[in-house]
Design goal:
Strand order of the largest sheet: 1-7-8-6-5-2-3-4
CATH architecture: 3-Layer(aba) Sandwich
Strand content: 25-35%
Helix content: 25-40%
Number of strands: 8
Largest sheet: 8 strands, mixed
Number of helices: 6
Structural class: alpha/beta
Number of domains: 1
Radius of gyration: 16 Å
CATH superfamily: Vaccinia Virus protein VP39
Order of helices and strands: EHHEHEHEEHEHEE
Length: 223
Amino acid sequence: MYNKRPCKLPPPQSVRIRKRDLAIKLQQVCHHPKPDVALEQYTIPADMAAEILFQACYTYSDIENKTVADLGSGTGRLALGASILGAEYVIGVDLDLLSLNHASRTARDLGLRVDWVLSDIQTLRGPVNTVLMNPPFGTKRPHADIKFLQIALTLGEVTYSIHKSSTRRHVNRWLTERGAEAERILSGRMDIPHQFSFHKRKRGRVAVDVFRNQPTYTDQVGR
């Protein structure tokens, strides 16, 4: 389903959970029951979340024993997955209370500890080791994805972000202009369920890229 870098796994005894089992656990995290079209609230598919988290953890060592922030966390799949994989501290941030209530309930059911914060991401102050995010694509709010990237680069030592493949050139140029070290680690198609009136099909698919970004020092001087 996805074009991806090979995952350089450590010795088997150090892997906390198989990727397939992680995806199964993350399927227990519900989709948003009342998504807001203006906020572009699309839940990341469980298998894609597991793939991103596994690479972040076992290819790049960016999850286990790290501080992790999930920006625009929604119902919490990325934040909860980071907790499952042994992050030292995880915070999920969203400005939608209903999302956070569902995320908190799932964390409790799974016996996971995540701090959920009701806030606009612009109010956050770092640092954290790793930022994970499935930001708005910018379809309804132009450049919302770039705003998320801009904030993430000031908060985290490394950022994982999902973007529409159609914006690849723009995202790459924006990151390059800021001297960020960016690597596209995954490309694939994200399933979009029928959840808004303008959706014509029962299920759609959107081509997406996942980037791993490391900011320059100048991006982080505001920490």
